[in-house]
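Exercise: predict the fold of this chain.
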Amino acid sequence: MSFLRRAATGLMAAVAAVPLLLAGAQPAQAADTFSCTGAASVFAAETGGILWRYPFNSPGTASAAHGTRAQVGTGWNTYGRVLGGPDGRIYGINSTGLNRYRWNGSAFETVNGSQHSVISTSFTQYATAAFRNKITVDEIGDFYLVDGAGKLRWYRYDEASNTWPIFARVLDTGWDKYDLIVAGGPGVLYARVPAGQLYRYRYEPTSQRWLDRNVLVGSSAWNGMTKGLFSAGGDTLFGIQADGDFFHYRYREDTNTWPLNAKNVGTSWQQFSNVLTLTNTCRLSDRHVPARPATPVASYSTGAALQGPTAGTALGPVEYLHADNIGRLRHGYQVNPDDFGSVQWTTLPTDQAFTGKPALVPNAQGVLQALAHNANSDVWSFTKAAPPSTSTTFPAGVGLGGAMRSAPALVKLSDGTQAAFGIDAAGALWYRSQDGSAGDLLPWRSLGGTGLTGDPFVLATADRSALLITADAAGTLRTATYRDGTLSAWTSLGESGFVGTPSLVTMPGPSLRIFARAADGTIRTQRQDASGAFPGVWSAVGSLPVASPPAAILDPVLGRLAVVAKGTDGEIYRTFETGQGTGEWGDWARVKPDGSDPAASDPIVVPLTNASGQSWVIVFRNLNDTTRVYERQIPGASALRTTGPRPAVQFRAHSLPNPK
């Protein structure tokens, strides 16, 4: 007993010297809101198979003590691991898989003549000595485990449908350094290293955000709990030493203290092979669920489009995606880039509503992935089936949480992994990195900041880095570099009042030129200097006030920059550089000079390779929700050889078939 009390004293001293929150993490602190519904039920299985229930009074307090036990079952030695869950649920793991029981307060429920049912044939390895301490159930019934590769995985079972809507979702990597995990609340995980230190994590499952990570809360001696470590919820912990001494703890994250520290509540508990309690007897009323910003369905949201990779000798298909005015995600597939009438439209299979511009990026396997902003502020991911599947449509999506005010941005980095970004209600920037180039997007983690506005723009650069651009509350555009989960300091690009998402073009060098819409509606631009820095001085791209953010591209024929925007009259306008690299601009002109073709959505530009060679298109939707495409016309060889002035740049208009 003296061993544990010495350890607890050392633990308290260590906690006082270590900050609760990691640098850059979002505080997950609140006043102490601890409460319990009554006595906890502690279940203990003897090696001979008898299961006992102990009423445990006043959990989480200095008055905690157990009452007289009662036998409630036999045959429990068939399970190598027994876990407590919420609301009377108990789970036993053996060679048959995961078995569910439910205690109703006086007996185990019987369904179809049996007290238990196998809800999964997986999890069998967690009945073995090597893995039995690497699985836990939290206060709301979610399962967390560490697999053989050291990945922390998340599971959720739905009893009504007998399905697992969340199954083996990867939350983190590198957890093979821990030899034990135990949940102390919804998404609250305590993790122990073999040397005895105890760390605390808080994962918020509704928003899928990591709020606290790798917080040292115990400096030593937790490896003395060789006979079990479990929780009744509300950041309570129970631990049993090899000599059978039974100790009780409670942690407070708001003060980083242990108001209940190593209270001895029993002896001779070493006789039990499994000891557990129900995980929601106690709780904190503050659940740390972030408030959802208002993100209603917008009218004529900007769409996304790209040309997919080539398939043998065939040119890549063109794919379109947008959220319509009632929130449906409409996907267009154009198998032949020369035939705009061949587009086949489908509605993505979900009953959710979406808003804003989706992100559309091929992953490392060349498979198209889309991120879309749910009208409830969450982000959803849709990924096409990988080869050998020949499906041209998207299957059902996966909710990624978020509670983001902005639309998501998605980028494929130089190592093939993806990273997603979003801005929350407070204007802080969050990201999701990928578990390798073929794995899950890991949960949201904070990159800090406040007062950021608009939708983030992201561009992949060298060495797994990405350039991020967003605006502050004054409308000043700022840039920062993301790499491996860290963000550089923000750099101002000068001036203020910019509106909407900027457009960037990578020039030879490489160097970047940025275009943005100023407060007076005109388009401004600046280019990186030889050192890679933006000078912070903007120049005008003509004097036409426009009603949309710019869309810019390097014309592959002329080698000159082109900028496209929607005018205040709704018409689509374009301008070109007067010469290669001049940074000076010709007059703005309508893409349809001989008539009217007003746009309802903002335009985008998309590089395109077709039978005529490299070109590009302008894409937007009109008031009839028809997708209009203006194809840059490639001049013939005779026009390119002429010594006189080249003919004016022309565009050919196409209407895509309307979705059915």
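Check your answer against the key: The longest strand covers residues 163-172.
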